[in-house]
Specification:
Shape of chain B: globular
Number of strands of chain A: 11
Order of helices and strands of chain A: EHHHHEHHEHEEHEHEEHEHEHEH
Strand content of chain B: under 5%
Number of strands of chain B: 0
Structural class of chain A: alpha/beta
Number of helices of chain B: 3
Strand content of chain A: 15-25%
CATH architecture of chain B: Orthogonal Bundle
Oligomer: heterodimer
Radius of gyration of chain B: 12 Å
Structural class of chain B: mainly alpha
Largest sheet of chain B: none
Chain lengths: 305, 87
């Protein structure tokens, strides 16, 4: 028996050409982008094509609406009901629209508001911090490095547990080179460093501003299907909990293995990862435990078997 | 395999399998830009693990950089250096 869940991944770089081609040939995706364009007040895909950087506002909107369109595509491929949904990190935003807690228009407005707020906030705060990702190091073997950072008085905090040996740490950029050298000495592989940093308890003031300035006017209705919290693994069933999930992405680390545990506890066998994902659909704890459909633009463009 | 190949078939098989957008008709040359064929950050880790398993080697910190995974030539250099017995 197949029990399926829908997952919206954290944001990564999106290939404009593939997404634009998918939207061009998919009438539902075109309609969704038209609705989102009206809410944003500009045409998202051309703006994304012309924008600089992988995480600009148009890039965020393209990823958001693209993820939703790909979820719709996946639902048409396999109409069996999704029993649970999850949205780690940025994925919490398309999740809000997919489970009906917000309309598409409100989800777009929220994403615009949060993107602009984040840009203003990080222009003035925490400019010396980065979130570094690295692989092939477990939390246990990392601990001595963290203890040394603490002993030397260097603030740091875990930002993301993607898999047992795929982690992200927020720390001062001044400490990054030495930290990456230490990761290599443990047999690990330092990957990218992200600016601005993400998911840290010291961003409480940003979380409060997100509530006061962006989320407060929005009404979050109860989700049509239960949602798995991306940090605690708890099951969420109310609109208020979905709003708090969006806020908690600012201050709580993503713990994808906990989401996986909850999905397993609810006998989920199949997972759809909807969006231009390079991570959540591929890490061992996902592929080891579920049949995965990576619903990316490239996959949706592939002729049906 | 064309004459300019400096690696063995096992290496060719692993790289072709692990680099996602490589088509059977595409030729793997020493200077092929692996990133252009979809080898992203997580793909580097997957390729590293496959090579370690395939050759019984362990990537040490000196070669644990993105530059090692830039082309088949740079990657094969790393594999051969790790296979050589210590002096």
């Amino acid at each position: 028996m197949t029990n399926s869940a829908m997952v919206f991944p954290g944001m990564g770089p999106t290939d404009y050409g593939e997404l634009a081609k998918f939207v061009m040939i998919n009438p539902s995706a075109r309609a969704l982008f038209a609705e989102a364009d009206a809410a944003a007040g500009f045409r998202i895909l051309p703006a994304f094509r012309d924008a600089e950087g992988d995480y600009s506002l148009p890039a965020q909107l393209a990823f958001l609406v693209g993820s939703l369109a790909l979820a719709q595509w996946a639902d048409r491929q396999d109409p069996s009901p999704r029993l649970l949904a999850a949205g780690p990190s940025f994925g919490a935003k398309p999740l809000c629209a997919y489970v009906g807690s917000l309309s598409v228009a409100d989800t777009v407005a929220m994403t615009v508001g949060l993107a602009e707020l984040g840009e203003r906030y990080f222009a003035e705060h925490h400019q010396g911090l980065v979130t570094a990702s690295f692989a092939r190091v477990s939390k246990a073997s990392l601990q001595p490095l963290l203890d040394r950072l603490t002993a030397d008085g260097h603030w740091h905090e875990m930002a993301c547990y993607v898999d047992e040996e795929f982690l992200m740490l927020t720390l001062a950029e001044d400490n990054l080179a030495a930290f990456q050298a230490d990761i290599r000495s443990l047999g690990g592989f330092p990957l990218y460093a992200m600016r601005p940093p993400m998911h840290a308890s010291i961003f409480g003031d940003l979380r409060q501003a997100a509530l006061d300035d962006v989320l407060a006017p929005l009404t979050f209705t109860d989700p049509t299907i239960p949602v798995v919290h991306d940090s605690t693994g708890e099951i969420l069933r109310t609109g208020e909990q979905i709003r708090d999930l969006v806020l908690s992405t600012y201050t709580s680390p993503v713990r994808w293995p906990r989401v996986v545990e909850t999905l397993q506890q609810h006998d989920i066998t199949d997972v759809v990862v909807a969006g231009s994902d390079a991570l959540f659909s591929r890490v061992p704890c996902t592929v080891r435990n579920f049949t995965v459909l990576a619903a990316s633009p490239r996959r949706a463009l592939r002729p049906a078997a | 395999m064309s004459d300019n190949k400096i690696w063995d078939e096992h290496f060719e098989d692993i790289v072709r399998t692990m680099v996602p957008f490589f088509q059977p008709e595409d030729e793997l040359t020493p200077d092929t830009d692996l990133q252009n064929y979809g080898l992203d950050s997580f793909g580097v880790i997957e390729l590293l693990v496959a090579l370690e398993g395939g050759y019984g080697i362990h990537f040490c910190d000196e070669v644990m950089t993105r530059a090692t995974f830039a082309t088949p030539a740079t990657l094969w250099d790393a594999v051969t250096s790790l296979r050589e017995p210590a002096a």
